[in-house]
Amino acid sequence: MNMRVKEVADLVGISVRTLHHYDEIELLTPKTTEAGYRLYTKEDLEKLQQILFFKELDFPLKKIKEIIESPSFDRQDALETQRKMLVEKRRRLEQMIRTLEKTIQYSKGEIEMTNKEKFEGFDFSHNPHEQEARKRWGDKAVDKSKEQIVGMTNDEQKAMGEKMNEIYRNLAAIRTSSPESHEAQAAIKVWYEFLNSNPSYHYTLEAFKGLGQMYVDDKRFTNSIDRFGEGLAKFMCMAMTAFADNNKK
């Protein structure tokens, strides 16, 4: 039985305006009666479910539309992939909740915490916005980067993540200094060298500069990086720009 827009909105828990917007951008276009009522079929509801799964994984609507409308799109394969991604997201959230609970106890003076324990769960070794990277730099660079990670053992991947977090913490500690200072440039050089430690792909100075700009242009990246210290994303962007400009031949 077909459902009207208000019925779908109530069923799913989203606004009628959201469904109208999906129709306007041709992401989810139900059939319309002569009287102008939108009617959603069983297939429309399944498509809406796919859209909301992708949204939960932080995919932008434009990218969702591109994926779903691709001739190679396979719903079953997408469901399996989405399940794996959500399970990984749950694992990270559970770790962060444990860290948060320990931090609450620590702030009350009930327990002690090492600096390392304070950042457990903040794992940036797996980029949550891979699709954005693909759009900006193409599949080749992302695939080569992933090939290296796939070839690593779990211990090697963990060590890489810990090294990355250590660099973020070191940069956060000096984020109030000038991004062009010797100290800041030395620290950002470590980040540049870390990114280029992958033998399968090399960040040019221009790509490094562009990456820094994305840290402030994309709020998702800004929020993730600023977890190590407010204003860190902006500081890194400025430091990376100065590094790229100063090292051009």
From TrEMBL:
One Pfam family per UniProt: MerR_1
Coiled-coil annotated residue ranges, if any: 76-103
SUPFAM superfamilies: Antibiotic binding domain of TipA-like multidrug resistance regulators, Putative DNA-binding domain
Keywords on record: Activator, Coiled coil, DNA-binding, Transcription, Transcription regulation
Domain HTH merR-type residue range list: 2-70
Family annotation (InterPro entries): DNA-bd_dom_put_sf (IPR009061), MerR-type_HTH_dom (IPR000551), MerR_fam (IPR047057), TipA-like_antibiotic-bd (IPR036244), TipAS_dom (IPR012925)
Source organism superkingdom: Bacteria
GO molecular function: DNA binding; DNA-binding transcription factor activity
Protein name: MerR family transcriptional regulator
